Amino acid sequence: MSESQYISVREAAQILGVTERRIMDMIESHELQAYKIANQFLRLKQSEVTVLRKSGAVPNETTQFSYTAKERLQDFFYYNDFYLVSGLLILILIAIVFKG
After folding, report:
1. N or C: which end of the chain has fewer CB within 10 A?
2. Backbone dihedral region for residue 39 (phi beyond 0: left; psi -120 to 50: alpha; all else: beta)
3. Does 12 share its domain with 46?
4. What residues does 10 pair with on adjacent strands?
5. Based on the structure, what is the number of domains in the chain?
6. What Å distances lie between residue 41 and 8, 9, 37, CA to CA?
7. One domain, residues 74 and 44
8. 71 to 43, 64, 76, 81, 82: CA distances (angstroms)
9. Are residues 15 and 48 in the same domain?
10. CA–CA separation, 39 vs 99, rounded Å?
11. DSSP letters along 33-91, please?
12. How far is CA 25 from the centre of its chain?
């Protein structure tokens, strides 16, 4: 890879094993140098990120939070409520048609 290859904030976060928010904090505190491409896209030099990873100066953020059964059930209903209500409505209509 060439020295001038640029990567996104997300790619830098994956390389360093931290969150994108942590990368943005590092940019704001000048731990990492960011570059704007076409005055819009924030990029970092891959070589600089790789050197930072090899130095061990940035600890991995390996904290994982448990995802409880209650939270899974809440997410299921939250993301599938339309389908559940539609299915229930179809079953009610089918029952009305065949009983009536």
Report:
1. C
2. left
3. yes
4. none
5. 2
6. 8, 10, 5
7. no
8. 35, 15, 8, 15, 19
9. yes
10. 66
11. -EEEETTTEEEEEHHHHHHHHHHT-S----------HHHHHHHHHHHHHHHHHHHHHHH
12. 16
Residue type, 55: S
Do residues 40 and 76 both lie within one domain? no
CA angle 71, 72, 76 (to 5 degrees): 115
Three-class SS of residue 30? coil
Q: Which of 24, 29, 25, 17 lies closest to 58, judged by CA?
A: 17
pLDDT digits (tens, 9 = 90+) for 46-58: 998 988 888 877 7
For residues 81 and 2, the model is more confident at 81
- Identify whether 62 is part of a domain: no
For residue 47, CA distances in Å to 44, 55, 71 come to 9, 12, 40
The domain in which residue 22 lies consists of: 6-55
Give the percent of the chain with pLDDT over 90. Answer: 30
Q: Are residues 48 and 89 in the same domain?
A: no
Q: Are 48 and 60 in contact (CB under 8 A)?
A: no
